[in-house]
Structure formats: structure tokens, C-alpha cells
Amino acid sequence: MKSEAYRTGYSLEALRDLELVPLTTPQAQNGYFLHESLIRLFQLVNEGFNPRDVELTREEGPVFDDYGFRMNGLHSPLFDRASTPLLSSVKFRNIVLQEIIQQLSLSREKRGNHQRGRISYAQLGINQLGAVYEGLLSYSGFFAQEPVYEVKPKGEDPARDDTVQTYFVPVREVQEQPDKYDPDEFVYENLPDGTRRRKRYERGTFIFRLAGRDRQKSASYYTPEVLTRSVVKYSLRELLADKIADDILDLTICEPAAGSGAFINEALNQLADAYLERKQAERDESLSPDAYREERQKVKAWLAANNAYGVDLNPTAIALAQVSIWLNTIYKGSQAPWYNARLAVGNSLIGARRAVYAAKDILSGDYLDKAPEPVPLGQPRPAGSVYHWLLPDKGMAPFDKDKVIRQLAPDPAKAIRDWRRKFTAKISRAELRNMQILSDLADDLWQRHLQERRTLLARTRTHIPLW
User: Fold this and answer.
1) Do the bridges between strand 71-72 and strand 48-49 make them parallel or antiparallel, or are there none, so unpaired?
2) What is the DSSP letter of 54?
3) Residue range 277-286: average pLDDT?
4) What's the rounded Cα separation, in Å, for the pair 38 and 45?
5) Residues 167-170: contacts with CB within 8 Å, 24+ apart?
6) Spatial separation of the C-alpha atoms in residues 270 and 268, rounded to whole Å
7) Greatest CA span in the chain, whole angstroms?
8) Is the CA virtual torsion 114, 120, 121, 125 positive or negative?
9) CB 49: neighbour CB atoms within 10 A?
10) Residue 227: enclosing H or E segment and its boundaries?
11) Is-contact 164 210, C-beta < 8 A?
12) Sheet harboring 200-201: ordered strands across?
């Protein structure tokens, strides 16, 4: 941003200066200057630019590096057009992109106040990204696979309240069952002649709507900083009590419900501070405030790239966690990190832990009333034992034990009870042998997976010089 050539010619700041310029002619409104400028900017950010790669000719001969600017490419999928083929196939007119830039650059208009403040993205932190995370999870987008009508709860008006959740039903379903929906359940659009009709979307239309119920079902809410700071502080207090600085670099962070990375980011912040405080004391040296900030970013980046793990059911959450951790750890000269080996979409609560039942307990049926024995990582499974997730359990599908369900659906409840009785019947030696073979195969897969993980983590280990 210190380069006038970059700031006035390529930067997003230059485009923000055009956010309120009136587009008065059809050429200005329907041209693609803003679109092409953004594409060029993203290309610069992703691929970088070095004046030495471009030979410039003047009267006195070729010169290489005496003006302009230099950028290191981030090489990030965030700015790679190939990673968003659908979006990359679209060109946006100036009038469309200008409105987008306004929405992203300026605060909301308030009633009676026509002044809108500039948003400084340089000052935004992880908490603000968490608010973005909540907003993204509140909406869902999809392409209509067939013509659909938009419907809503009876008595609600999405035109007046944009928090009203709407739904979509196939046109053919309404035609086949015309009495299924009340007229007040449809969303209507006004026509130029003063009449109105049901809002209909044809096949291939992209629909983007509020999806609050999906968010409730997935418990996708952002954790505020005041909570993450306190939880991490007291979690680390005892853990770090007797540690020297280098011991901190051996600690791993695991967040089994990562969300957009709020707890991981807070742990990185506090561990980096703990490392530098101990290292300064051990070396009897002090870093200047500027040097401390730079070295703190490097420690956070090292821990994030090599020691931080996270899992979440929501793919959007993991994508945002990667972005938030990157923004929290970026430092001068760094490139876009690769977190895919440690931040993953998955289910932490699937229950397939390393725990087993002994063969004698399985044959006698005693295992049904016992808890499985854990097998510590790095230790072999006891001979003849079987992993617990291969065996039936008396607590499976306990719907028949619920009084309300038994009253509402007596026959299915009885069927479940009869099924469970057969399912938990005594296990034969042949069945035991099959489960032992399956457990051996699981161990073989586990060992191969461990080896692949070790190879992957060794090849992707990030080397950052730490103070």
C-alpha cells in the first residue's frame, strides 16, 4: 500500500473510491471495468508480481527494477478462479458490483441519517469474522431442480420481515394436490398491472434464502471472545505450570467442534504469548514491541500449521476456520498455509473409539452389562478381543421405552422391542470368529492409516524460524 502505482491502479481501495460515483450512462452501468479490475487484483494477490519478471524499455535501454511494486503470491484457493468454476463463469456489470462494494465497504444506512461510515477491514478481528460465520450459516443457496413455488408460515410476511424463513415446494405437487396449501401460505409478487401472483422460480434458478432452522439443528453458533479467552486461560494454567518455552512447541491443540476456529485461535494467541514470555526469561533478553508482534505471529503460524487440529460437521465452518486461523497468524513474507491435513469435516461423536470386549464376555453375554476396555494408542489390541462398535447393545433404538412413543405408535414400538431381543441374542463361536477377523482387518487399516498420516504430516510440515 506504500506504492502509489499499486494503491491507485490495482488496490481494492481504488475501487472503493468508485463506490458512490453515479453511473449515469448505459455504458458505465453495463460495462465490466469493476469486474475486470477485481479479476486482475485477485490474480496479483494469488500469483504475485515481481518487476524483475517484466522487461521495461526506455530510451536509454531496458530497466527492470527501478519503479512499481513487488508482491509475493499467496497461492491460495481463496483467490484461485479454478476453485470456484461456477462463480468464475459469470461476469458482473459495473452497476451490480458497485452495489456489492457499497454493501461491503459502508455501514448500513440509518433512518434519518444519510451518512454512512467506512468499514476498515484492517481493523477487523476474529470476533467480526465469527459474526460473518453466523450470517453465512443463517442462509442456504441452491439451484432449483424443477419449477417451484415459494411458501411461508401462514400469517407471516417476508416482504416486511426479512427474518421470516421461506420454503420451496414443487409446482407439480401443488397442481396434483391443490388443497394441500392455504392461499395465505404462498409468497406473492406484484405485477405491473396492479395484480399479484404466486412467486415461482423456474428450473435452474439460483435461490438464496434464510435457513435458520438448519442452523438450530446443527447448533451452529459462534462463541464470543469473552468465553473463549476464559476457557482457554484456565485450561492452560495447570498445563503450562512447569513447562519451558520449547515444551510449548510440542503441545497439540484439538477442537472437536471447531466452528470457525474461535477456540483454536484463542489457544494459539495464549500459547504464543506463553512461549515468548518464557523464552525472553530464559534468554534474559527483551523484544521491542514491534519485534514482539512480528515474532508472536510467527509462533502462532508455526503452531497453527503443525500442531492445531479441528473437526466440524459443517463444511462452511471448516472453510471459515481455515481463513480465520490464517488471518490470525499471517506475518510478513508468509504464504497461504495448507491446513487440510489437520482441519477436517467430520463427526467427532461417531463413537468408534479404540475400546474392546474380551472373547469370554462376548460368548457368555456378560458384555451387554459391561463397559468396553479402552486400548491406549500405540498398544496392540488384546488377543481375541473384539471392538465394541461391532457388537449389539441393549441401548440401541430405545424408542419403545418411551411412554409417549408407545402410545402414539404401539405397533412400531413393539416391532423395535422384538428386533432388539433378536439382535442382542447370544453370540455363537462362528459369529465371534467373524468379528475377530473384522477387528484384525480394522487394526490393519488403522496401522496403514497411521503410516499415511505420518508421511503426509512429515511432507507438509511447515518450517518457520522462531525466536
Assistant:
1) antiparallel
2) S
3) 96
4) 10
5) 168/144, 168/201, 168/207, 170/146
6) 6
7) 95
8) negative
9) 17
10) helix 225-239
11) yes
12) 167-170, 148-151, 200-201
Sequence letter at residue 17: D
Range picked from 9-13, 66-70, 119-123, 341-345 for highest mean pLDDT: 341-345
Q: Are 152 and 164 in contact (CB under 8 A)?
A: yes
DSSP state of 313: S
Helix, strand, coil in percent for the chain, rounding step 5: 50, 15, 40
List the grid coordinates of 51: 518487476
For 140-182, the pLDDT digits (tens) are: 788 999 999 999 888 888 877 767 778 899 999 999 998 889 9
> Which grid coordinates are listed for 336?
497461504
Is the CB of residue 362 less than 8 Å from the CB of residue 432?
yes
**304 in Cβ contact with 271 (< 8 Å):** no
Could you give the dihedral angle defined by the CA atoms of residues 121, 126, 128 and 134, in that order, rounded to the nearest 10 degrees? Answer: 130
25 CB burial (10 A radius; 0-12, 13-18, 19+): exposed
- Cell matching residue 424: 442382542
pLDDT in tens, 395-407: 888 888 888 998 9
- Given a contact cutoff of 8 angstroms between Cβ atoms, the answer to whether 307 and 464 are in contact is no
- pLDDT tier, 310 (very low <50, low <70, confident <90, very high otherwise): very high
Q: How far is CA 323 from the centre of its chain?
A: 8
Query: CB neighbours of 375 closer than 8 A, spacing ≥ 6?
Result: 354, 355, 356, 381, 382
Amino acid at 380: P
- The DSSP code for 381 is P
Joined grid coordinates for residue 208:
438464496
Please report which residue ranges of 151-254 form alpha helices under DSSP H.
Answer: 171-176, 212-218, 225-239, 245-248
Instruction: Indicate the Cα dihedral angle 225, 227, 230, 234, nearest 10°.
Output: -130
427 neighbors 362 (Cβ within 8 angstroms): yes
Instruction: At 120, give phi and psi (nearest 5°).
Output: -100, 105
> 206: part of which helix (H) or strand (E)?
strand 206-210
Kindly report, residue by residue over 362-376, the tens digit of the pLDDT. Answer: 999 999 999 999 999
Q: Rounded to whole angstroms, what are the CA distances from 147 to 83, 93, 169?
A: 29, 27, 9
